[in-house]
Design a protein that fits this description.
Protein name: GIY-YIG nuclease family protein
CATH topology: GIY-YIG endonuclease
CATH architecture: 3-Layer(aba) Sandwich
Largest sheet: 3 strands, antiparallel
Organism: Sphingomonas lycopersici
InterPro entries: GIY-YIG_endonuc, GIY-YIG_endonuc_sf, UPF0213_domain
Oligomer: single chain
Order of helices and strands: EEHHEHHH
Pfam family, one: GIY-YIG
Number of helices: 5
Distance between the termini: 27 Å
Family: Belongs to the UPF0213 family.
CATH class: Alpha Beta
Radius of gyration: 13 Å
CATH superfamily: GIY-YIG endonuclease
């Protein structure tokens, strides 16, 4: 995947802890999150399942969308995820990643 601005939401599990991020390379960022290479919130809380993402035309647009979503209340974020991913499937698997080991 070429560089493409993207806003994404990771979750620890269904209705679990959420993380909203922005990147210019979703595949590389997913590797970082899934392999625990980014210290901090996502590593500490086991937040690595891709449950929603949205491509943007520019990085500025992606950052604006990220800031908007971060201001939303939790119910709005859950509704956004469930509109396109009602079963909270790890969308990264569809992008070629191995499923996350639930015992890890």
């Amino acid at each position: 995947m070429e560089r493409q601005p993207c806003v994404y939401i990771l979750a620890s599990g269904r209705h679990g802890t959420l993380y909203i991020g922005v990147t210019s390379n979703l595949m590389a960022r997913l590797v970082q999150h899934r392999d625990g290479l980014i210290e901090g919130f996502t590593t500490r809380y086991g937040v690595a399942r891709l449950v929603w993402f949205q491509m943007a035309d520019t990085m500025e647009a992606a950052i604006r969308r990220e800031k908007q979503l971060k201001k939303w209340n939790r119910d709005w974020k859950l509704r956004l995820i469930e509109e396109t991913n009602p079963n909270w499937v790890d969308l990264a698997v569809g992008l070629g990643f191995d499923p996350i080991d639930p015992t890890a």
